[in-house]
Structures are given as structure tokens and as C-alpha cells.
Design brief:
Strand content: 5-15%
CATH superfamily: Metal-dependent hydrolases
Helix content: 40-55%
CATH class: Alpha Beta
Strand order of the largest sheet: 1-2-3-4
Number of helices: 7
Number of domains: 1
Largest sheet: 4 strands, parallel
Distance between the termini: 19 Å
CATH architecture: Alpha-Beta Barrel
Radius of gyration: 15 Å
Shape: globular
Number of strands: 4
Length: about 150
């Protein structure tokens, strides 16, 4: 997983991973950084869009919007939910992050972007599928999540 917010270093790391035939997974950063990552064709997955202190008084910012979803669909990028990090949060923060995940599930459902749980190997597929369906996703999204 690429965990850097410097775009030049991220591009170099992506080139290295693509030449080695490895999966390219990028951890989300600022909104501008995420937009540039979604414009890249070689990125396989973006993880952790729902984390961060971006909420306003009467508006929730989930880190994903319609334009980024269209770019993800065009470039074949998968949106990943970091369920390992989500499980370690306290109750109040977990509720806020789950609300952002629910918003992202709706966006992905509307635009047809694939969404999965990351890292999927640590969790049962039925649990991840149930999480997505309980947060408003379709049964097809639930199957993809696991």
C-alpha cells in the first residue's frame, strides 16, 4: 500500500509496482490528492476515503463525490473500505465513519463503481457482505465487497 501524500513519490511508486506486476493500492489523502489519484490509470484501489476530520456543522464529507466516482469507473479503480482500521475505532468515531461509508456506498451504487472491504483476508466474506447491505448497498455490492 502506498501511504504517501507527495504526488511525485506516489507516481514513482506506482510505476515501480506496475513494472513488478503488483497490485497498486493507494491510501487516500487530501481532496486534491485523491482527485489526482483517481485520474491515474494504473491505480487499482484507493483505500480510506471515509477517514478524516472533514465534517462541517450540517454537512458530512465522505471523501468521495460524483466526479471522482466517474473517474474511478472510467479508469477501473476500486474504492476500498479499511475495515481493519474501522474495527479499532471507539464507538462515537465509528458511528461517524460508518455514516461516511454509507454515503460512499450510495455514490458507488449510483455510478456503478466497485467497492470492497480492505484487507478482505482478515474478515469473513459474509460479514463484509452483511455490512455493505446493512448500510444501504445492493446485494450485488454485498457480493463484491467480500
Amino acid at each position: 500500500m502506498i501511504n504517501n501524500n507527495d504526488l511525485v513519490k506516489v507516481r514513482n511508486e506506482i510505476k515501480r509496482l506496475v513494472s513488478a506486476n503488483e497490485e497498486v493500492v493507494v491510501r487516500a489523502g487530501s481532496d486534491e490528492f485523491n482527485r489526482k489519484v483517481f485520474e491515474m490509470r494504473d491505480v487499482g484501489m484507493v483505500v480510506g476515503l471515509e477517514f478524516g476530520k472533514r465534517d462541517r456543522l450540517k454537512q458530512r464529507d465522505s471523501g468521495l463525490n460524483e466526479i471522482m466516482c466517474r473517474l474511478a469507473k472510467k479508469n477501473g479503480i476500486v474504492v476500498g473500505v479499511d475495515v481493519g482500521r474501522l474495527a479499532r475505532l471507539d464507538k462515537l468515531e465509528k458511528a461517524k465513519v460508518l455514516a461516511r461509508v454509507r454515503q460512499n456506498i450510495g455514490l458507488c451504487k449510483r455510478t456503478g463503481v466497485k467497492m470492497i472491504g480492505y484487507p478482505a483476508g482478515d474478515y469473513d466474506k459474509k460479514d463484509l457482505s452483511g455490512l455493505v447491505v446493512s448500510l444501504g448497498g445492493s446485494s450485488g455490492q454485498g457480493k463484491m465487497a467480500g
